[in-house]
Amino acid sequence: MTPAPLIEARDLHVEFAARGRRARAVDGVNLTVGEGEIVALVGESGCGKTTLARTLLGLERPASGTVLYGGAPLAYTTRALKAYRREVQLVPQDPTGSLNPRHTVYEAVAEGPRIHGLLGEAERVAAALARAGLRPPERFAGAYPHELSGGQRQRVVIAGALALDPRVLVADEPVASLDASVRGEILALLLRLRDELGLSALVVTHDLGLAWNIADRVAVMYLGRIVESGPVEQVLSAPSHPYTQALLSVLPDSPSPVVLGGEPPDPTRIPDGCRFHPRCPALAGGKAAGAGVDGACVSQSPPVLPASAESRAACHYAAALRAGN
Amino acid sequence: MTLLELRDVAVAYRGAAGDVPAVRGVSLDLAAGEALGLAGESGSGKSSLAMALLRLLPRSARVTGEILLDGEDVLRMSWGRLRAVRWASASVVFQGAQHALNPVRRIGDQIAEPLLVHGLATPAQARRRTAELLEQVGLPAWRARSHPHELSGGQRQRVMIAMALACSPKLVVADEPTTALDVMVQAQVLALIRSLIAEHRISLIMISHDLSVLASTCDRLAVMYAGRVVESGPAREVFTGARHPYARALAEAFPTVGDPASRRAPRGLGGDPPDPARLPPGCAFHPRCPAALPSCAERDVGPRPVAAGWSAACVHAGPEAADTGEAGQAGESGGTGAVRENA
What we know:
The complex is a heterodimer of chains A (325) and B (343).
Chain A: E1 5-18, E2 21-34, E3 38-42, H1 49-56, E4 64-69, E5 72-73, H2 78-87, E6 88-91, H3 95-98, H4 105-115, H5 121-131, H6 137-141, H7 150-162, E7 168-172, H8 180-197, E8 200-205, H9 208-214, E9 217-222, E10 225-231, H10 232-237, H11 242-249, H12 281-284, H13 287-290, H14 294-299, E11 312-313, H15 316-324
Parallel strand pairs in A: 3-8, 3-9, 6-7, 7-8
Antiparallel strand pairs in A: 1-2, 1-4, 4-5, 9-10, 10-11
Helix pairs in contact in A: 4-5, 4-7, 5-7, 7-8
Chain B: E1 2-15, E2 18-31, E3 35-39, H1 46-52, E4 61-69, E5 72-73, H2 79-85, E6 90-93, H3 97-100, H4 107-117, H5 123-136, H6 153-165, E7 171-175, H7 183-200, E8 203-208, H8 211-217, E9 220-225, E10 228-234, H9 235-241, H10 245-253, E11 304-307, E12 310-312, H11 321-324
Parallel strand pairs in B: 3-8, 3-9, 6-7, 7-8
Antiparallel strand pairs in B: 1-2, 1-4, 4-5, 9-10, 10-12, 11-12
Helix pairs in contact in B: 4-5, 4-6, 5-6, 6-7, 8-9
């Protein structure tokens, strides 16, 4: 049932110095992406989701904790990272910004195979373009980015990742910069790559609809921690963390929106107790007090969630409800 | 009462290889206090149309038709009159608040500027009004002394809305006011826009490619494709039961979380929006249309009535849809030039 973990974050902490203070961007995260699994990492800007993704790619070094690939801890030597990045490829957020305007599609896609000294470059590029839905590949190989539409550029970027035969794609907001009608096609491509090539994917997004569209599991991140995770159907249909509930409730079609006040808080000042308590509707509305956990909400941080396939929430109130049932 | 009337508005940009049409004959009405959502993708002409309303387009753009604001044609106004109308009668919340605000000037001075320029307030009155406006958009009055970089994205968007409201306009045009904002901040800004237009009876034109956002904020929707309105009608009805295949695809592009039909089934359209310089013949949508008939490649149809106040420019829409192809109601569209022939 549960696929074997391919990439794993174990008690990961990543810190930055920000204006003389310490920003705990990732503050204790356990997460796995299994073989052939699509995991959506969801959260607002500043929650640490992009930092977590960059750390999983080996682009940031954790302050503590471990990134494991295929069960072995990631080694941070140039050679080991180069080998690792052949297998775990980034699909960047903005295809227009990440393509060199003076390189043809062929050169953009061939760059990876050249760096890794792979044989059969032309066939590799043609196969990658075809897999990314740019068919026939000859028609696109000589084109420059400005001659392509936004959706085609995103396909070129995905082809660049596929040219290395990776096992995992890490996609950061893969459709945020695309037109609405093109969005579905790119998401369908990610699903097809999983089905046909068995690719795993970690998709970083603020878009819950995207998670519903393609992911198997979802992890909701708030201020450096995963506050709820589990199978998409369970987490998005019956969320137990008040933050997940609020995120779902403000989707345009929702009947009763719970609009949280304030802005996403600051990772240099993580509140004591549950990090969500200053904005928590369950605490403010007295529900937490009714369950007798309001004291815990303001004084004790809920335990860090384990990397588990089951549905879990890091919330005193949700735990009390579950225990009461 | 009609506040804004567009009659066969067209926008073309002069290019090296001739004029490129961005908006091709749009007619729309907006009642006082009404909120209209203008939907479409990049290149659909929605932003060109919105900017044309206040003649904010670059000199390379040629605008034709009539834009009647309170009965007065914006396109024929003198510069002096136009300056008086901008901000005071109609204002714009621009896309991307981080770039639209001046980074080296304080928020309060930027909000007060239109009041002072239009001579609507003394500096002391403008200061008081600024504090009042900041409060209306949910920011503390002391924020007037802040610079834009000290604010978050959502707060900057609130400042843009305060600026747009400064001179108590009758019409606010909001161009993608929530793009690039987080879901929670988007919800805050949308709730703010909804309450402000209701409270002040302001008419709103809101532009977005996200039909679900427009449907939740606006009374009516107009969906644009390749420079034309392909469907317009009551917001909920168009969002849930669009008759034009493009409007339907746009509505389905953002799934309803929890809807089993969209689980592991992202929906989109093949192909890409057309290049305005090289529009396909016939219906501009036909190369991407899942329901195109052979005749669609040759013949464009104008808006056809679906129900009261609801029309769609598609051969499959309207009472006589499939059988005769008689485009009897095309006349209203002004210049779509429906050729009558059978499929």
